[in-house]
Every structure is written in structure tokens, then in C-alpha cells.
Amino acid sequence: MATSRPAHRPSRRREIISAALGELSDEKRTGEPATIEAIAHRAGVTAAAVYYHFSSRSELMSTILAEIHPEVMHLFEVGDFTAVSAPFWIERLVDALADWVVDNPDAARFYFLVAPVLPDEALVAQCAEFRSEFLSRVFDFIGSSGVDCGELSVWVRAHAIREVFICAIELGLEGRARPRRGFHELRRAGRYLVVDLLQHRDPDGQAVAARASADRAG
């Protein structure tokens, strides 16, 4: 049985966040709700101690998301994409993401799979903001890689690449692939898919983008 400990120590905040990630991962797998009481029990503190650091479950979730997001965005710093070929850079990004997911499965599950579907309007808006930043980085990369397609097609490819990442993460974390060994296969498949998305030429891309622009102007 967990023994409750003082609430005010700064380290308690980190322990509560870690416990919350564990409970949220269990919730995703088992369907059992990650209540404040369950999080407190896992952290070895009282529910009052959780509320000492976070005014609500919503604030706790938002704090966790905000802490994970910079880690995810840092994965893009795998090298100067203007100095290497597009396939080489995107392969390094896939590798960096896969390594991070293997090392941080609870954080990855919460960031990519749990938070976006929680029934919390503020959290949904926060996820949308972070998703836009992620997509913008991919968009900037594709736009700088010399891929021959229009702006609309670049956005479509950016979304497709992100969905490849999410599908690989879900397959790897939800028991359909063995940890590490399974991710090795997912990593290889992810490389093939995203590189193909980058290298596939779209001769109609400019025309599609032009039509979309004309429609918006009209």
C-alpha cells in the first residue's frame, strides 16, 4: 500500500506528472479512468497533494502536454535539412522519433494518442496548436527539399507524414509490435513511406493549388 508523503516538495510535482502519465497509459489500454485519486495513489501522495500542485485534472493534463511538446519538436533538430538530401533527413527524423517513443512510451502515448481525444475543450485547442506547429515544421522541410508540387500538395504530404508517424506509434505501443524489435520494423516501414511521399512527383499539384486559391478568392 502506498504511503502518502508531504505535498509541498518540488519533487512531488514531477512524481505526480510521472504517475499521471502511467495512469493515462493504463487508461488507454484498460479503459479504467485515470482519476485524481488513482494518480495520487500511484504517486504515493494524497489527492489533496495533487490539488496542491494542480488546480484540476485539466490543468494537470495541460501541463503534461506542454512539457512533452518541446521534446517532440526537438526531434526536428536532427541536422540542417538544407545541407542534406530530403530522404536522408527524413530518415533521420523517423529514427529520432522512434528512439524517443521507445524511451518514452507513456509520454508518446499521451501526446499522440490520448490527449487529442480527451473531452476537454482547452486541451483539444492546445493539441491543435501543437499539431499545427508540428505540421509547419514538416511543411517547411518539404518546401525546402525541392519536391516538385504545389503548396496544397505540400500540406497534404505534411499531414500524411504525420499520420504515418502516429500509425507507427500506435502499432508499436498498443501491443501489435514487440517493443524495440517491433519498432525496428516500424522504423523501416516508416522510412519507406515518408520517403515515398517526398519523392513522388505530383505534376497536377500546381494546378490543384491554383484551383483552390481561385476558389478561395471567389
From TrEMBL:
Pfam families: TetR_N. The keyword DNA-binding applies. Residues 35-54 bind DNA. This is HTH tetR-type domain-containing protein. It comes from the Bacteria. The lineage of its organism: Bacteria, Bacillati, Actinomycetota, Actinomycetes, Mycobacteriales. PROSITE patterns: HTH_TETR_2. The keyword Ribosomal protein does not apply.
